[in-house]
Design goal:
Strand content: under 5%
Mean pLDDT: 77
Largest sheet: none
Oligomer: single chain
CATH class of the domain at 141-252: Mainly Alpha
Order of helices and strands: HHHHHHHHHHHHHH
CATH topology of the domain at 141-252: Receptor-associated Protein
Shape: elongated
């Protein structure tokens, strides 16, 4: 009987100890749960909030770049001409490309180059030369737009602080500014008149003028439209950031100008030497394009010169 009583007493003591440990475990788990809830509700520090905001911006900009690349693969020729600032029709550009190829073909035939080779070179030139010219015009127009964008944003900021509606500020840019910035904001104003919101119109502009500055502007307008609040301060900060980016880009261009000039000089030296030799000894120099061996030598030289120019361009890019 005493043995049974001892066993029951031991079981009761163990149960009491287990209950105490279990209560402590529940209390600890409840404390941890409350601590996590408090941490989740605690305000994030300014630096942490800035880091999270920058990560979100980088992700959205990467998505915008990928979407732009996908659209560029199937973008109509008419839109490409508009991006370059050319008021040409598609037919005029095609005729210009054909004329460029025919001119190169005729020049090679006059130089007694093989007809098949002249056709091939003319076809390549008729495609690449107008495309390169179009890309150059597009890049120049984007640079002009980006250079004027900070001033346009400051104009919007001053208008908002003066009590104007944001749509009136857009029309103010159209009235006061000139060049590509005026044309693009005119399209923004037209899109708003057709029922598009400011965020949608700016996003369409960022697809036409593909640069980091227009992507930043599109994201800033979209975030302001969702979260609300004043738009003057974000636009002012964005304008200051863009102005600093332009200064940094100009500084880098000045530092790399010597390398770019060297690339141009080295690229023109073989052509200058060829022209000089032809002026001094035309019969001997003409063997380069009138004989098979000379044509092969010229093709090999052009290939190696092109590779050298490509490598030097990659070396001087930052």
């Amino acid at each position: 009987m005493s043995t049974l009583a001892g066993i029951l007493a031991a079981i009761a003591a163990m149960s009491a100890v287990a209950a105490l440990f279990y209560a402590d475990m529940l209390a600890g788990a409840d404390v941890d749960r409350r601590r996590r809830a408090i941490i989740a509700q605690a305000p994030i520090s300014g630096e942490e909030q800035r880091r999270i905001w920058l990560e979100q911006m980088e992700e959205r900009i990467a998505e915008m770049r990928k979407r732009e690349q996908d659209r560029n693969r199937r973008r109509p020729l008419k839109e490409v001409l508009e991006q370059a600032g050319l008021k040409w029709s598609e037919r005029r550009f095609i005729y210009t490309s054909i004329g460029c190829g025919v001119a190169v073909f005729a020049g090679l035939v006059v130089m007694s180059i093989n007809v098949a080779a002249a056709v091939l070179v003319g076809a390549v030139a008729g495609y690449l030369v107008p495309q390169k010219a179009l890309d150059t015009l597009r890049a120049r127009r984007v640079r002009e737009f980006v250079a004027d964008l900070p001033e346009a944003l400051n104009l919007m900021v001053r208008g908002v602080r003066a009590g104007l509606y944001i749509n009136d500020c857009v029309r103010l840019i159209v009235t006061e500014m000139r060049g590509p910035i005026r044309d693009e904001f005119q399209r923004v104003a037209d899109a708003q008149q057709l029922g598009a919101t400011l965020a949608e119109a700016i996003e369409q502009m960022s697809e036409r003028v593909q640069s980091d500055e227009t992507r930043f502007l599109s994201l800033a307008i979209s975030i302001q439209a969702v979260e609300g609040g004043g738009i003057a301060e974000p636009l002012e900060n964005l304008a200051n950031t863009m102005r600093e980016r332009v200064k940094l880009r100009d500084k880098i261009a000045a530092m790399t100008q010597e390398a770019k000039f060297s690339v141009r000089i080295l690229a023109l030296m073989p052509l200058g030497a060829l022209a000089l030799n032809y002026a001094m000894t035309p019969d001997r120099t003409a063997l380069l394009w009138t004989t098979t061996l000379g044509q092969v030598s010229m093709a090999a030289g052009a290939l190696w010169m092109g590779l050298g120019i490509l490598i030097m361009n990659r070396m001087q890019k930052i």
